[in-house]
# Entry
Amino acid sequence: MTHKKIKFLGLRRLAAVLLTAAVLMTAGCGESSGNFAKTAGKSDTITDMTSQALVEDMGVGWNLGDTLDVCAADRDGDGIVNETPAEGEKVDETLWGNVRTTPELFDHLKADGVKSVRIPVTWRDHLSDDGNNTIDPDWMARVQEVVDYAYDRDMYVILNIHHDGGGDPDFGAWIRTDAPGFEDVRTKYKQVWQQIATYFSGYDEKLIFESMNEVGFDTVAEPRAYEMLGTLNQDFVDLVRESGGNNDTRHLLIAGYWTDIEMTCDEKFQMPDDPANHLIVSVHYYTPYQFCITGEERTWGTDADISRMQGLIDKMNVNFVSQGVPVIVGEYGMVSTDVESRVLFSETLTRICHDYGIATYFWDNGSEYDRVNYVWRTDGLIEALCEAIAS
# Structure
């Protein structure tokens, strides 16, 4: 969601899949950090397809929101951490009120027509303080388990770094800093991504890595802020490409500036260099803010509303798709409960994007899809999404 938005212990699988250890290289220095990344053990064959063809094949997309992306955070901006685990327990996927994810969830989603799933993951509560930011093996194994629920059902999966960047730096969001601390951020960023990339290196093209979620640097001048984001995105591409397995050609999703369409279409935003030419740009769509985020506007669908949506997606087409850079709208959604408006907004965005070869992923924090009874709460929504991509 936009950087202004406030987003809404069960069994831990032991890391039985831990196999060969690969030494994690400390970011930017070429020396062994002593941190060992574990491989998830997949050895699937990656196929040769363009990133544009991959995006066009994604179909209906959906976010497993407020689940693996949970964290102990100041979610309402009042200076107090809202949810924390019980004493002696770890942060887990149920912290923000959702149920533990099951394989059956993905069976039902796929049966309903969902072909692609974005699985946001927050890592900050699961990193060691050993100087290497070693990821808790139990957390890594659980992330893999959920990824496999979708991947093994032949669904596309987007895996990212989520609330490690964002709006609460005083409570743990670390991909957000003034320029003097930026090299420390780069080091930590590389350490975390090196582990993730190595662990999931054997998956085929159905697994896409996304560099980060909504990140910008508002406390520094804009040219430098764009440069900082560009540096992290380039670091991401470089380390993934060097991490072995299928990662030399894996399709990578590059976060736009705050994933905001207009800011990402600014000439100051630059896509990284990639020898594999397998990059996709990521933006989010929460316009108008009053309808999508605050609920001040309950309905949507006037000619002006649709024209505004068309104009913003046109910008992505002109600046990226028509220039050979595929686009994914990694999140869109609204807080309005007006059924007609919810369906029309979602269907219209999906159709406009589909016409340009852009994939869209509905943001669901647990309020849209009932993860216990496996039903959609908005009548006609999934049917409209499937219809929007049918032609």
Q: What stands out?
A: Residues 21-388 form a domain with the TIM Barrel fold (CATH 3.20.20.80). Residues 2-36 have pLDDT under 50 and may be disordered. The longest helix spans residues 222-241. The chain has one domain: 21-388.
